[in-house]
Amino acid sequence: MKTEKEHYLDILNENAHNIKFIPNEFKDNRDFILEAINLDSVCNAYNFLTFLSDELKDDKEIVLKIVEKDPFSMLYSSNRLQADKEVLSKAIFAAPIMIQYASEDLQLDKELVLVCLKSLKGSFGHIHTDVVDEFMQKGIEDKDSAIKYLEAILLNNVLQDELSAKLTINKKIKV
């Protein structure tokens, strides 16, 4: 005989949209939801996240796993996670159009733009116009050149950060 948990997982496995019929004691249970996310049916459950508690909509692990299967689900996560760079990056990589839902600051974030460019096929698509203008001013007219340009900037920033950290450590040692 199946447990109640197994019964509800079977119902979700048939169709993830059945989440709306699952009792709150299961929908609000983090372990149950983590198990449910692994079901094949959840891959196509556009609004799965909408039926979860606010607490679970703000659970980064749960949101990341759901966004991995359905990037548009990010729109139903908490405001905090909608502004989270890691969540946005995962959503943008799967569906570049998701960059348009980021704040303007994050739409201009070079790392997120690079993620978007790498996942786009062809044009600059949904990239913020200020970023595209910057590319055009630098004579960058295609996606591959834009990716190389951004990778060089990001590598330079990482090297500068590492050098700065080493200088700080050296100053501390001398004192």
Which consecutive residue ranges, at least 5 long each, have pLDDT under 50? 169-175
What is the total tally of β strands? 0
The shape is elongated
How many structural domains can be distinguished in the coordinates?
2
Q: Give the fraction of residues assigned to helices.
A: 55-70%
Tell me about this structure:
This protein is an all-alpha fold. It folds into two domains: 1-82, no CATH class; 106-175. It is 61% helix and 0% strand. The longest helix has 32 residues, at 143-174. Mean pLDDT is 80; it is low at 169-175.
Helix and strand topology:
Layout: H1 4-14, H2 24-27, H3 30-37, H4 54-57, H5 60-69, H6 79-82, H7 85-94, H8 104-107, H9 110-119, H10 129-137, H11 143-174
Q: What's this, in brief?
A:
With 175 residues, the chain is mainly alpha-helical. Helix content is 61%, strand content 0%.
Features:
single chain, 175 residues, mainly alpha, 2 domains, 11 helices, disordered C terminus
